[in-house]
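This section describes the prediction task in plain terms. A model, or a person checking by hand, is given the sequence of a single protein chain and must write out its three-dimensional structure as a string of C-alpha coordinates. No templates, partner chains or ligands are provided. The sample shown here is typical of the held-out split.
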Amino acid sequence: PPILRALGLKSKISFSTAWKPAFKILASMRRLRGTPLDPFGYTQLRRAERSLSAEYETAIRTALKNGSPHEEFLRLAQLPDQVRGYEHIKMDAIKQMRSQL
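The expected answer:
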Protein backbone atom coordinates (compact mmCIF):
# COMPACT_ATOMS: atom_id res chain seq x y z
CA PRO A 1 0.00 0.00 0.00
CA PRO A 2 1.21 3.55 -0.74
CA ILE A 3 0.98 4.51 2.93
CA LEU A 4 3.41 1.76 3.93
CA ARG A 5 5.72 2.67 1.06
CA ALA A 6 5.78 6.24 2.32
CA LEU A 7 6.87 4.89 5.69
CA GLY A 8 9.87 3.20 4.09
CA LEU A 9 8.63 -0.29 3.18
CA LYS A 10 10.25 -1.35 -0.09
CA SER A 11 8.73 -4.75 -0.85
CA LYS A 12 5.26 -6.26 -1.02
CA ILE A 13 3.75 -7.75 2.08
CA SER A 14 1.11 -10.40 2.59
CA PHE A 15 -1.84 -10.17 4.94
CA SER A 16 -3.25 -13.08 6.89
CA THR A 17 -6.95 -13.90 7.00
CA ALA A 18 -7.11 -12.00 10.29
CA TRP A 19 -7.09 -8.83 8.21
CA LYS A 20 -10.27 -9.80 6.35
CA PRO A 21 -12.60 -7.69 8.57
CA ALA A 22 -10.40 -4.61 8.06
CA PHE A 23 -10.50 -5.08 4.28
CA LYS A 24 -14.29 -5.45 4.41
CA ILE A 25 -14.48 -2.11 6.21
CA LEU A 26 -12.24 -0.53 3.58
CA ALA A 27 -14.43 -2.01 0.82
CA SER A 28 -17.55 -0.56 2.43
CA MET A 29 -15.88 2.87 2.44
CA ARG A 30 -15.72 2.95 -1.36
CA ARG A 31 -18.84 5.15 -1.31
CA LEU A 32 -16.61 7.88 0.11
CA ARG A 33 -14.39 7.99 -2.98
CA GLY A 34 -14.35 11.41 -4.54
CA THR A 35 -16.00 13.06 -1.56
CA PRO A 36 -14.34 15.34 1.01
CA LEU A 37 -14.44 12.39 3.45
CA ASP A 38 -12.20 10.22 1.25
CA PRO A 39 -9.18 9.42 3.45
CA PHE A 40 -6.96 8.65 0.46
CA GLY A 41 -8.16 11.57 -1.67
CA TYR A 42 -5.72 14.12 -0.31
CA THR A 43 -2.52 12.60 -1.64
CA GLN A 44 -0.59 14.53 -4.26
CA LEU A 45 -1.42 11.92 -6.89
CA ARG A 46 -5.18 12.00 -6.27
CA ARG A 47 -5.25 15.80 -6.31
CA ALA A 48 -3.33 15.81 -9.61
CA GLU A 49 -5.73 13.25 -11.10
CA ARG A 50 -8.76 15.35 -10.14
CA SER A 51 -7.29 18.51 -11.64
CA LEU A 52 -6.45 16.80 -14.93
CA SER A 53 -10.03 16.61 -16.15
CA ALA A 54 -10.53 20.36 -15.80
CA GLU A 55 -7.21 21.09 -17.52
CA TYR A 56 -8.08 18.72 -20.35
CA GLU A 57 -11.54 20.23 -20.78
CA THR A 58 -10.02 23.72 -20.92
CA ALA A 59 -7.57 22.60 -23.62
CA ILE A 60 -10.39 21.10 -25.70
CA ARG A 61 -12.55 24.24 -25.35
CA THR A 62 -9.60 26.44 -26.34
CA ALA A 63 -8.90 24.29 -29.39
CA LEU A 64 -12.57 24.47 -30.40
CA LYS A 65 -12.67 28.23 -29.91
CA ASN A 66 -9.52 28.72 -31.99
CA GLY A 67 -10.73 26.48 -34.81
CA SER A 68 -7.72 24.20 -34.52
CA PRO A 69 -7.00 21.69 -37.29
CA HIS A 70 -8.18 18.10 -37.13
CA GLU A 71 -4.68 16.83 -36.30
CA GLU A 72 -4.54 18.92 -33.14
CA PHE A 73 -7.85 17.47 -31.95
CA LEU A 74 -6.51 13.97 -32.54
CA ARG A 75 -3.37 14.79 -30.59
CA LEU A 76 -5.43 16.23 -27.73
CA ALA A 77 -7.74 13.22 -27.73
CA GLN A 78 -4.78 10.87 -27.33
CA LEU A 79 -3.16 12.71 -24.40
CA PRO A 80 -5.18 11.07 -21.57
CA ASP A 81 -4.12 7.63 -22.83
CA GLN A 82 -0.57 8.47 -21.77
CA VAL A 83 -1.49 8.82 -18.11
CA ARG A 84 -1.10 5.34 -16.67
CA GLY A 85 0.85 3.48 -14.06
CA TYR A 86 1.17 3.80 -10.33
CA GLU A 87 2.44 6.62 -8.17
CA HIS A 88 5.71 8.13 -9.46
CA ILE A 89 5.21 6.63 -12.94
CA LYS A 90 1.76 8.21 -13.17
CA MET A 91 3.05 11.53 -11.78
CA ASP A 92 5.74 11.60 -14.49
CA ALA A 93 3.08 10.88 -17.13
CA ILE A 94 0.90 13.69 -15.74
CA LYS A 95 3.81 16.13 -15.95
CA GLN A 96 4.46 15.07 -19.54
CA MET A 97 0.78 15.47 -20.45
CA ARG A 98 0.68 18.93 -18.91
CA SER A 99 3.74 19.99 -20.89
CA GLN A 100 2.07 18.80 -24.10
CA LEU A 101 -1.15 20.61 -23.27
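For orientation: The longest helix spans residues 44-66.
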